[in-house]
Design brief:
Length: 422
C-alpha cells in the first residue's frame, strides 16, 4: 500500500517539478523575448539581419559552454541549489539590463552574459527532478519541466512582450520579463532542498547521477548517441533559425502587424507545448524511431508554410499550431533515447553532452548563417535553412536503433511465436 506521503499531492516530488517547470519556463521567456522584440529593436538600434543573428548566436554559444561547465561545477561542489540560486538572480538582472542597452555592442555583451547565467538551468533542473522522482514518474516529470519552454517561452511570451512593446516600448518589455525570475529566486531560496538530503531514494538517485570524467568517453560508444548528437545539431538549426527570424519575417515580408505577429507566434508556442506531450506519448506505442522520423518530416513544414502562405491571422495560427511539431522530437533525441540506450548512471552525462554540442553548433551557427543569408537573399532564406535542418534530422533518424520498451517487447514476443516447435 502506498504511504500517505506517496499519495499526497503536496509532496516534495511535485513541488520540485513545479519549481523547475516555472524556473525553466521563465528562462526561455527571457531568452526568446528578444526575438519577438527584434521588429521593435532593429529600427531603434539600426541593426541589420546579420547583427540580429549575431545577438542570438552569442547567447547560444555562452549558454552551451556555461551549461556544461556549471553543471560539472555543481557536481564537484555537491550542490544544485548553491549554483541555481545565483544564476536565477543573474539572468533576471540581465533581462533588465537588456532594456537599458542602447547599441549593438551593448546588447551583444548583455545577451552573452545572460547566456552564461541561463545555460546551466536545464541540467541543474533535470538533476534535481531526477533525484526527487519516483521511477514510474521520472519520464513524465522530466518531460513536463521541459514543456514549459512551449507554454511559457513560446506561447505566452510573444503575446506579452509584443503588447507591452506596442503600448509602451521594447525597453519596458525587458523590464517586465525579468520580474518572474526574481520571484523564482525567492521561491527556490525558501523551498528548494539539496538532492540527497531528503529520502533514501533521493540519495541513491544522486549517487547514480554523479558525472565522472571516465563516463564521458563511454557515452559515445553507443551508436544511438552519435545519431542523437547529429540530430541535435540539425534540429537546433531548425529551432533557432526559425524562432530568430520568424517574427521579423512576419512583420517585414508578410506585413502582419506586431499584434498579429504576436498571435501567430503564440500559436507556434502552444503547438510546441502540446506536441511536446503528444509526441513522446505516441512514441510509447508506435516506437521512438518512427515517431521521431514522422514528426521531424512534419516539422519541416512550419518554416515552409510561413514562407509561402499569406492568409488571415486565424488561418495562420491554425497552420502554425499544426505544423510546429518539432518540440515533439526534442525529448526523444535529448532525453528518452539516450536514457533507454545507456545505463542510468550515464544519462545525465549523455543529456548534458547532447545539449552542449547541439546548442554550440546548431544554436550558435544557425542564427548567424540565417542573418547573413537574409542580408544576401532576403528574410525567406532563414526559413529554408530551418526546413533543411529538420529534413536532415528526419533522415538521420533512420540510423537510430529502436529503444521503446513496449515495441522491443512486442518484437521479442513475435520472434518467439514464429520459432517452429520441435
Amino acid at each position: 500500500m502506498a504511504s500517505p506521503q506517496k499519495r499526497s499531492f503536496f509532496r516534495y516530488e511535485n513541488g520540485v517539478v513545479l519549481m523547475m517547470f516555472f524556473t525553466f519556463g521563465f528562462v526561455f521567456m527571457e531568452r526568446l523575448s528578444i526575438v519577438y522584440l527584434f521588429p521593435f529593436i532593429a529600427p531603434d538600434l539600426k541593426l541589420n539581419n546579420a547583427e540580429i543573428g549575431m545577438i542570438a548566436s552569442v547567447l547560444a554559444v555562452c549558454w552551451a559552454v556555461s551549461g556544461f561547465i556549471f553543471g560539472s561545477i555543481s557536481d564537484l561542489v555537491g550542490s544544485r541549489k548553491k549554483v541555481l540560486l545565483p544564476i536565477t538572480l543573474a539572468f533576471s538582472l540581465f533581462s533588465f539590463l537588456s532594456g537599458l542597452a542602447r547599441s549593438f555592442w551593448q546588447m551583444i555583451l548583455v545577451r552573452g552574459l545572460m547566456g552564461v547565467s541561463e545555460g546551466p538551468v536545464l541540467p541543474l533542473a533535470q538533476a534535481s527532478v531526477i533525484a526527487a522522482s519516483t521511477p514510474e514518474r521520472r519520464g513524465f516529470n522530466l518531460g513536463f519541466v521541459q514543456s514549459s519552454l512551449g507554454l511559457i517561452g513560446s506561447f505566452l511570451t510573444p503575446i506579452i512582450v509584443t503588447q507591452i512593446a506596442v503600448h509602451y516600448s521594447w525597453h519596458e518589455a525587458f523590464y517586465l520579463v525579468g520580474v518572474p525570475g526574481l520571484i523564482m529566486f525567492f521561491v527556490l531560496l525558501k523551498w528548494m532542498r539539496e538532492p540527497g538530503r531528503g529520502t533514501a531514494q533521493e540519495a541513491e538517485a544522486v549517487e547514480h547521477t554523479k558525472v565522472r570524467l571516465a563516463d564521458i568517453g563511454a557515452v559515445f560508444r553507443h551508436r544511438n548517441m552519435w545519431f542523437c548528437v547529429l540530430i541535435a545539431i540539425f534540429s537546433m538549426t531548425w529551432l533557432f533559425a526559425f524562432t530568430t527570424f520568424a517574427p521579423t519575417f512576419l512583420t517585414e515580408v508578410s506585413h502582419y502587424s506586431p499584434d498579429e505577429m504576436g498571435l501567430i507566434m503564440s500559436a507556434v508556442g502552444l503547438g510546441t507545448f502540446v506536441w511536446g506531450f503528444v509526441g513522446p506519448a505516441i512514441s510509447d506505442r508506435l516506437g521512438r524511431k518512427p515517431t521521431l522520423i514522422l514528426f521531424a518530416f512534419v516539422a519541416c513544414l512550419s518554416p515552409i508554410c510561413l514562407a509561402l502562405l499569406r492568409a488571415p491571422v486565424g488561418v495562420m495560427m491554425v497552420v502554425a499550431f499544426l505544423t510546429t511539431v518539432g518540440q515533439a522530437v526534442f525529448p526523444l533525441f535529448l532525453v528518452i533515447i539516450p536514457g533507454e540506450s545507456l545505463p542510468y548512471r550515464l544519462v545525465a552525462s549523455a543529456v548534458g553532452l547532447t545539449q552542449f554540442i547541439g546548442e554550440l553548433v546548431g544554436g550558435t551557427f544557425a542564427p548567424w548563417l540565417g542573418g547573413v543569408a537574409a542580408d544576401h537573399w532576403g528574410l525567406v532564406a532563414p526559413m529554408w535553412i530551418a526546413a533543411a535542418g529538420m529534413l536532415v534530422s528526419a533522415l538521420l533518424a533512420f540510423g537510430l536503433k529502436e529503444t521503446a520498451p513496449a515495441k522491443i517487447g512486442r518484437r521479442a514476443l513475435e520472434a518467439q511465436e514464429i520459432v517452429p516447435t520441435a
